[in-house]
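Two proteins were folded this term; both appear here.
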Amino acid sequence: MIAPVSSRLRDSFTSRYRRQLFSVVSVVLLITTLTSGCSRSAYRLRADRDVFHIYQEKQAEEAYTIPPLPGVQVDPRSRFYDPSPADCPALPEPQPTLSSYQLPDLASAPGMTAAEASLSDFTAGQVEAIPTPQGQPRAEIASPSDQVPLAETETNPAETSEAETSTAAPGITSEQRLADLIRQQAAEDDALQSADLPGPPSAGTPQDLTAMDGESKEAESSDEADDDEADEDSDLRIVPIPLQYWQELPTSCLPRMMEFDSVQQEFQRTVPEMGAAEMLSMRSDAPRLTLPMIAELATINQRQLQTQKERLFRNALALTTQRYDYVLRPTIRGNGTGLDYTHARINSASSSGLLVPTETAVTKTTATAGQFLAGFANDVVLTFNGPNGFAANVSSDLLFEFQQTIFQRDVVFEDLTQAERNVIYEARDLIRFQRSLFVDLATEYYRLLLTYRAIEISSQDYFSNLRAFREGRERFRQEDKNTTLVQVDQFEQNALSSRSSLVRACNALESDLDTLKLEIGLPPEMPINLDLSELEALTASDQLTVARQLVMRTLRSLRETDRRGDQADGGVIDTEAMVNGASAVVSHLQDSLQIRAKVDPAARLQQVQQEIDLLAAKLKLLESRLICDIKADQLQQIEADPRFQLSAPIAFERTRELAGDLLVQAQRAIRFRRLQNRMQPDAGGDSQQLQAMGRRIRQAIAQLKQMEDTWDQSDPREQLQRIEQMVQMAVDLGQQAEALVQQATAEVLPADSAELQAVVQQAVEQTLELADRIESSSISSLGQTDPDQQEAMLLALYQRLDLANARGDLADQRRQIKLAADDLKSILDVRVSQRLSANRILSDPLDTSADGNVTRLSLALDTPLNRRIERNVYRATLIDYDQARRNLIQDEDEIKFAVREDLRQLRLRRNQYEISVARAALAYQRVVSTRMQLKLNIGNVVARDFLESQQAFTSALNSVAADHILFILDRIELFNDTESIRLNAWGYWQQGQGESLSLPPLPDFYDANPNPYGRIPEFLHYSDEVRQNH
């Protein structure tokens, strides 16, 4: 009876335990499935989120110096962007390809609207969007659409891109189109006629600064505007460059030259039938980049910048690891369970067993440098078919342990402390790198602009020397006694040297463009170009400064002439010299205003322009009056002197020339009176009377022209037969011209010479007053106010991020002294542990005899009997601290030296710029003078004089451009050395293109650096020595 009951009870227990076993196994499998880990993306996103929170925290701590920090996410427009899944990236195509990357849409491109500039939710480029003390730079240069070059108005590159694209055949580059056109034209035209005289160079040459004043004696049309004379010298017409010389230039150089309006004009003179759209298609069709676009491209493609971002990100990741030690966390390993099934057969008896070990533990480093550990272990042992049948045993251990070090707390904190500070260091390095990157990009950009400028100047220098060579060669062929073969060879050698310089400049440009591509992360094979709007603005500014210099030089000469006239005996003044000087001043003032209007279209110059035009018309009238008086006096003296007997042909020439000069004087008088009536309506003057006089003057000019044509078309025999008749016609025409002059000048010029001197004196005084009013500013337009040197050095010492890192390094080395000193002490650790154990037999769950409870308190002391290694480490840390302190002092000295050197360089650049401007003005006058003297064969001027003057002018123009651009670069370097650059979202400094030297105001040091030696975590219980140093 008992046996069956016992058997049924055993079967019941066995069945129940098997169900429990099944449940345990099922739970273990479920736990294993659920705790196998999250997805890759979940881990990545958690890491990014933790790093983002650290960035926000550090930026809040150092809000004055650290802007919002970028992540490591790659811009979708970047070459580095991988469209494959981030957590399972695909390997790229192994076969290399060319031109696989296209220039993306850029937010900083000219004309980009705010909506187009927004890039969805991508904010990795937000670099410096914090308010910081800023200086007050001058107004920015006008937008590209407002910038106009000196010579002619050039079409905005952004507006002409469509025209270029539409006229370009697919697959054909601009170099090929230009080369084909030149070859086609060269095949059609065997040669062009050689010119009589070379014309003045276009933009970039002296004729850009002031036009040569000449007079046209041809009849004008019937309307009022025809009485306004064109200030051109018809004898100095610009001769086209033959196509064969264009063909000699490299095809890669021609599109770069065609970027400039002056070169396009030269080419259009050669091929006049070419339309504007076809001319624009000859330019390079590569994308045109501005400095903001270059900075944005570098922000999304620059390799070193991405590496810097990743270094910061890695340090932030390391900090999350260190911070995780101070939260209650599961241990790295030992959290899990397992199954161990065993089947054994011994002595013909078999037994089976299942072991289910389970353990878990959590740990934490406390704010006092203690280590807390809590662990739980549970083992379930199930035995099947054992001697006693089925048996089960469950043993559990619960452990609580705390260990506290007494003397080495700061040592325990050091990993977290350094990790916290490393994030700040790397953030400062990143911001400093971005600002330095902008400086490097600006340097590359402006040096490229300088190379472009050299190409334009070298092109015009080549054209000018080429014309001089062809003119000299033609004169030599015509057996001009003043032109020798040696001079022709000199001209040719100079033309070849100019072409060589031009080709070298084009080659240097291509090399520099490739260097820029590598710097910003673009593939070298990608064609790019620069938007030359800023170069045009700089050129116009330089030309304005040179024009002002010409005004000042001519003004000084005029004042000297005026002073000599005042000191002359009897009050006799050199009226001719004074009128010529005043005319030159007014001409330069007109050029200066014209350039100023292009540099600053918003300037109100209409009233001043009208005053200058009226004064210029008056001076031209006076000049004509003096010329006519001199020629009339000379003619009367010769006729009255019995020693001279004028031949009829000479008398005809003299009379005809005087009649033409009188008619020019009458024309100028009419023009002056019309301008006077427009500006001074109350001054009197009948417009109908002026129109009638204008018609009579034009009729007289037509008669003079007809008489000259009749004389020129007659053969010598016919001229001798008709000489008396022609002389009489010239005398009659001269008398008619005198009557017209008297009628036209009756109200504006006195007939008496003494009264005329008073009018001349009044005109000179008006010129001086007007020049003083218009050109009252300094010659140099560069920043005139130098920053205070002491404040600039202090500003740099207060704000430099690398110096802040150096101070932090010094504090780190000081903390290492404390840590090394702690290692010299005894090591005293206190450990407390509590273990709770339980062992249960499932067949008798009420049995608790196996329960255990163990409490342990231990103290471990390591005495400092052998601290030789620690002693040496301690001594080395003292040396390291001294070295770090010296490095800090050296960094401060180097920063102060850099600021002082920047200010010296800026003063030097400004001084050199003023000298270069003076050289350019003087060289211009020299070129004009030697060219005219060489043309007229006067003054013992030879070809070498003209060549030297042309070379001096070219060198001066290059120096003006170079000194201006170098001043801008030195200014950027000064702001970078004082840490005053603040970048926008795409790595561009908006005040970088200014010329003002106004630095931000000097802040209080502790406002700019609230924690000069850096922060340490607030919740940790550092020693007093460490805490007081931070």
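Next, the second protein.
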Amino acid sequence: MYQIKIEPDTATSHTKADKDDTTPNRCDLHFDLSFLGAEHGTGNYRLHVGGKEYTLSLHDENSRRSIQLPPNSHVTHYAPAVVQQANVVELLRVYGESVAGGPPTLASIAVRASADATVFGVNDAAAAVIFMNPSISLLTPKTAVTALQHIQGTPALCELQLVIQALGVRWCSTRLLSGEDQKPLLKPDGTPRYAFDLHDEVLDVSVKVSKQTKTTLYSDVSLNGSRWNLAAGKPYVNMSEGTTATLVHGMAARNSNGYSIGLNDAGPNFGVSVALNGLSDDLVIDVTVANSYIRHTSVFATFMKADGVTPMIVPDNIWLELAKDTMKFAVEAWLKVARAGDSGMLELLGGHTNTLKWCGNVGAEKTFLGIPVASSDQRFTFALPNDQGPVGKIRLRVGSLGVDSHNDADPTAAWLGIAMTLVIDLAIPTYALVTTDGEQTNTIFDSLFKSPGFLLPLALSTYTVAKDILTGSENTGADLKSALISLTDSLVTRVLTSTEVVEALAGYFGAEAVEEAIPIVGWAMKVLAMEASVEQLAQTVGEVIGSPRIVEFDLSVTMNAQITLQPNPATGGEFPATATSFTITAQYSDSTTRVFHGKIEDAKVASITADWQQIPVGGTVQLIVAMFDHNGWGVGKGMSPMLTNEINGTDQHGNKVFVSRIEVAQQLYPLARDTVYLHNQLLQYADDGSEQGYRWISRSSAPTETAFDLNTGPGGHRLEALDSLSLCDDLGLLGYSWQASGLNIPPQDQSAPLETELHTMQNIGFRPIHSALAERWPQASFMTAPVGYSKAPLMVYMRTAGQLDADDPPRCFFLDPSGDSTGGFHLRGVTPVVDPAIGIDDARRQFDLSQAKSWGRFALQPTSLAIHSNGYVVGVNPEYDTIQILRLAPRAVPDDRAPWAYMLAGPGPGAGRVSKPALVAIAPDQTIFVLEAGNRRIQAFSKGGHPVEAFPASDTPFWIPIQPSGGSATSGRATTWLSMSIDVAGYIFVLSQDGNGYDRRDFNLDIYSPEGSHLMHQNGFVAAGLAVDLWRNAYTLNFQRISGPGGRTEPSISEYIPSTPRLA
């Protein structure tokens, strides 16, 4: 049996006898216990608070009159002369009589955070249940009062109060605890241990109250830094800040010997960020890891050989030599405890393969439940191994509680963080509430969080209990509810009630407080567990339980780059004469996007060169160039192919660098307030002999059909619904989906009738191709579906997919709508066809709908999707106040092994929260924009789920308000947000519909500038979907019905171009 140790020089023992209450302030506390039923008038009740017990007396007319309570107060009992403790949050527990001589019952409970609070009833009991949720609790009076106000302000609290009233004494029951051998668990005095169990109905309704509470609580700016932390996302690095941009951002370091390393992505991602502080001449790396979520994390390092793939083996004795400064002392202390204890402790510190090396732990926030503690940021300093050849990559793994992250270190690198989070962040708050030490508790927390003698054995016990529960097949995936509920009972009966743990915790909180906390310590975890289901995660702030178990950060060798812009000979062989500035956007497959803004002093030059330093090596990169005049109008454009991101040439000084040359073509599509989008081309299909095939027909008039022209029914050729439209810019193809009858394809569901309306999808080309078969260019990209779905598939194509090799992962996908919330809605790969020589009936032109492999899945079916160049797909649905962020698998895997999307954000009006997210789009700099119908705004996010200050000049830098469209602003009709798209310069295009969409005036196109101002509004822009290419050509999915191959029912597609600006 291992032993939990308390270091006498750091541990703080607390007993209530230690407190000086020789001249305490006292007051009477009053309780309404009438909700317990008739027996409340005859029962004997005792109040426990502050380590003391008080007998409750029944109120009578005289006692009520003496305290001048209002007639409708309905108080039934009072406790006289209760000691008032200053500046603490108290948990009041009212115990009833024992049943058959056994343990007591819990009659009522309340949280007291203010000396003015002296009357407590069923409403306070309901609020206390919510307050004990560890993602809501706070231990300082000021912040606790604020939290209670948020709880009391929720409409659902009344429902919880009514449930407790209806249940009466059954709202909370007493249960004897038993061990694994089914024998009763006993206290040191021989009496049985017990727990107070909340009734299932209480737990069910508590989820709704918690959701409503956190909707406002996590947007309350007064609690920023105590209950929640606003960590702004960084979707790209601005290389215009000079050659040291990555150094300034803590993403690169170099020494005087010429060696340099860089962070591919510094975050914050899922609450974790990394800063690279330095690289010494003897190759010692200095990094800081920070955590902004309510959890404890464990940090591990893996060193890869020169190939960047093969892990190095680093024994513990070598690791102790490589660790430096305070990190070395921590590693020594923890390894010492691990070696002296159970062998499982070494497993928690990385296992026996010696490829995962424990660096240390990072705590939760800079405050714990509102109480200031030592900084949660942790600095790690270590040298690189030098006995196995050069190090090609260092991978930091930060692990904690969450859902499967589908990487090779999961769950090994997470166990220590999981164990500490379960105990410290979910259980310890209850002990702290019972202790009522107030801000003095910070000395307990600081001591407890740093003690390997306490934490490591405790983590081993938790790991032993949690391992099978958290990794069992029935508990994996996107839903942690059943796992956490199972885990709660096991932690209480097998860990928190063990003699060693009770004695250890007593050294921090006092024996009496520990014993009083045990019966209710499971409440916090069960209330939180109820939020961990798929349905609830979509409706609450579930930062920890919705995040991946392991967040990875790569440090790798860096290189310099030289990017040269040259005029395109096809457009005059010179740069646009009016160009005054340019932007280069580098989209990396494995690294944060880089953006460079440069000035053009003289456009009459042969080339323009940008030199970048400290760029990570590896993966692929695509470069996009845009030139602008002094008004910000786009006047030039260019794009590289997809390039291997490694040194491929030399600069003018002979230094080995990454080199790319990009031709810039002139183009004149400016945007201004008087800009109007004009209809330019219409996609049609001809079936008259030699003219058979798709054609783009020049036409200045747009189709006149509206939603009024949609029809329903299984017969004939009816266009019934328009589902999605996506665009791949450099492949020149559009993917779109719709519902219709007369598609001439069978249903995927073989039990469905053949003559039925079905959803289908199609690809078509939108850009001319250079080929002898150029007349066939629209159908060069044609693809169709062999069967139809009963629900809508969604197309999601990366705008800069590049030419892919056979082994490359796809960058075009469709969402398979045949899934459900249990198995997930899977993302299937699309292999585009762009060769005009392939016949229109060739099997390669059919989407593979029979594929049984997936690139990832969503627990909740998205209605809008966007794809990120780093291999993430983002989905939203206005029915769920969450953002689903899916990290694509490195290769397609069987459906049951596909990674789940993480559910982030949560409801609320503040930064990083969402309300009815309807649309999502990703800018070329890889900033994610979400249009929220509920908050009526467009908010920016990073791929790690953090809000981004995309509009720094705005009063609300994280978002811009949506301008009301002409019709809905005056008529009060509901607005349907149809599409959002973003061009190369960052202009945001929003397509909306007012009312039922029967009239052309119901449709609106609004464009917002990159700075966030509303640039233009165009009424009568009739379309059901919109996709804008990088160069501001707009493509729409129309309500017009056309006949495709074989007479099948299809919607038409239009191309719009912006008007030429008026001359001054």
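Confidence is low (pLDDT under 50) at residues 1-21, 243-248. The longest strand covers residues 550-567. These notes refer to the second protein only.
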